[in-house]
Structures are given as C-alpha cells and as structure tokens.
Amino acid sequence: MASAMISGLIKSKSLPAEHILVFDRKPKTNSDLHDQFGVTAMDSANQLAEKADYLIAAVKPNALLETLDKLSSHLRKETVIVSVAAGVTLESLASALPKEQKIIRVMPNTPCLVGEGMSSITPNSTVTEQETETVVTLFSQFGKAEVVSESLIHAVVGVSGSAPAYIYILIEAMADAAVLAGMPRAKAYQFAAQAVKGSAEMVLESGKHPGELKDNVCSPGGTTIEAVAMLEETGFRSSIMQAMQACIAKSDALSKK
Ligand SMILES: NC(=O)C1=CN([C@@H]2O[C@H](COP(=O)(O)OP(=O)(O)OC[C@H]3O[C@@H](n4cnc5c(N)ncnc54)[C@H](O)[C@@H]3O)[C@@H](O)[C@H]2O)C=CC1
Ligand SMILES: O=C(O)[C@@H]1CCC=N1
C-alpha cells in the first residue's frame, strides 16, 4: 500500500521526490523505493519520526501499535500520524502514542498507484481543520479523498479498501468467459477491464442511478437481459453483498482485538 501511495504522489508531481522520506525494516525495500522513485530512504524509524511532518504508517495492523510505541519518544508534538491500517481505531492508536498526538485514520486502496484511489480521512480531536485539509489534499493527488466519521470506516473497508480484489475477480471471470468464446487472453483482459472502467465512469459522470444505466443496456428481447436474468438466478447481487458483509465484519472484529 505504501508503494501505491508513493507512486501516486510521485506521478502527481505535488512534492519533490526527495521530500518524501521512507523507512521499511527491510533494507532492500528502502533501496528499491529510492531507486524506483527517488525518495529519501531513512536509516531508522526513529530518524523518520524525528523529521516527518506527516508520518504515514503503513505496516500490517498487528504490528502497528508496537511500531508506533517504539518510535513515540522520537516524535515531535506537531507531527501528524496518519495510519492506513484496517481495524486499528483512533483510540488504540492514541494508546501507543504520546498524549495529545495528532492522529488521522485513512483507509485508501491500491488504485492510488494509478491516480484513481479512493480514501477516507478521519482525524482525531487534536488535529486542526487545516491539517485535515492537508491530508485530504495529499490523498487527492492520487485519487479521491473524503472526510468520514470513524463509525463508517468498516463500510469504507468493504466498499473501497478491499473492493479492488472483488473487481479483479469480476474482470478475471469476464475474461475467462471471453476466452471460452475464442478471444485471446490478453485482449480478453483489455476488453473486460475497459468495460469495467467505462461503466464506473458512467456512474461517476452521469450521476444517473446504476439501475437506469443497466436498463439502458438491456434491449428488449436482447442479449443483455439474458445475462441479467442469469445473474439474478445465480445470486450475483446477494453474493457481492454477503462478501462485503464478511469483509465489514472482519474489519469490525479487528478493531475489537
Ligand atoms: N493492501 C491494501 O490494499 C490495503 C492495505 N491497507 C493497510 O495498509 C497496511 C499495509 O498493508 P500492505 O501494504 O498490504 O502490507 P505489506 O506487508 O505489503 O507491507 C507492509 C510493509 O511494512 C514493512 N514493515 C513491517 N514492519 C515494519 C516496521 N516495524 N518498520 C518499518 N517497516 C515495517 C514490511 O517490510 C512491508 O514492506 C495495513 O495496515 C493494511 O491494513 C489499507 C488499505 C488497502
Ligand atoms: O485486506 C486487508 O486487510 C487490507 C485492508 C483493506 C484492503 N486490504
């Protein structure tokens, strides 16, 4: 996730690459990030903590609190800690950090890599409006970013954080069916992915209800309605909703650990 955000930031040209400081505990990852993006690799998490104005913590949720606890004595009071970890609440983040530390929870997704991310932003009470705005602007450099209340974060994990995985399965399945019908594999991925991208753009740009857009594709007695009837019969909607409910429940369970 960190590489996706770094790549998105570099592509946006909103910050000089060398102003982006990175530290990964694997030395090879640090040198790869430096070589690939021109960012500045730090020697330790503590050095990063001392220098950063906005520190984005992108380690796995189960390692996050310990990592923050270790570097907390090196943090400056003004530094805003940005956590992208699923299921780690503002309250638990605060417990690992100095009192009154500024903390923002963000839930991004991997399409940040191509400038089409969707990120939710949730500040704690010590963060100023201007700092929140800075983080919204930062995450808007590689997609869309919106402030949401913490109670909505599990829904965000389901609808955008984890969602690319379901969409890739959809694209893969669509391509498989096209290959079955004789289309070469590479072309099948291109057609399927572009159909998904174009359909998403139609929802975002037209402002029309997805049902209306679906109706516009279904010619009476035509091909599409055959597919739609089969999707309903095989429980496509219900399958998506059940998968998301499992994802949302897991996010909720993680936050109660
Ligand atoms: N992968 C995704 O699509 C999304 C991930 N997230 C969140 O992003 C976070 C990272 O997830 P991924 O990128 O998927 O994991 P990852 O395992 O690919 O990356 C984690 C990185 O952290 C490094 N690391 C581990 N402990 C460290 C430490 N103490 N100090 C410095 N570096 C350390 C690892 O070497 C690794 O490079 C998680 O908290 C996850 O919940 C949030 C939204 C989407
Ligand atoms: O699977 C995960 O736990 C992370 C959080 C959202 C997307 N990936």
UniProtKB/TrEMBL annotation:
UniProt xrefs under InterPro entries: 6-PGluconate_DH-like_C_sf, NAD(P)-bd_dom_sf, P5C_Rdtase_cat_N, P5CR-like_CS, P5CR_dimer, Pyrroline-COOH_reductase
Pfam families: F420_oxidored (PF03807), P5CR_dimer (PF14748)
Catalytic reactions of this protein: L-proline + NADP(+) = (S)-1-pyrroline-5-carboxylate + NADPH + 2 H(+); L-proline + NAD(+) = (S)-1-pyrroline-5-carboxylate + NADH + 2 H(+)
Pathway recorded for this protein: Amino-acid biosynthesis; L-proline biosynthesis; L-proline from L-glutamate 5-semialdehyde: step 1/1
Record GO terms (molecular function): pyrroline-5-carboxylate reductase activity
Keyword annotations of the record: Amino-acid biosynthesis, Cytoplasm, NADP, Oxidoreductase, Proline biosynthesis
Compartments where located: Cytoplasm
Predominant location: cytoplasm
GO cellular component: cytoplasm
Domain Pyrroline-5-carboxylate reductase catalytic N-terminal: 1-87
Its job: Catalyzes the reduction of 1-pyrroline-5-carboxylate (PCA) to L-proline.
Family, similarity comment: Belongs to the pyrroline-5-carboxylate reductase family.
Protein name: Pyrroline-5-carboxylate reductase
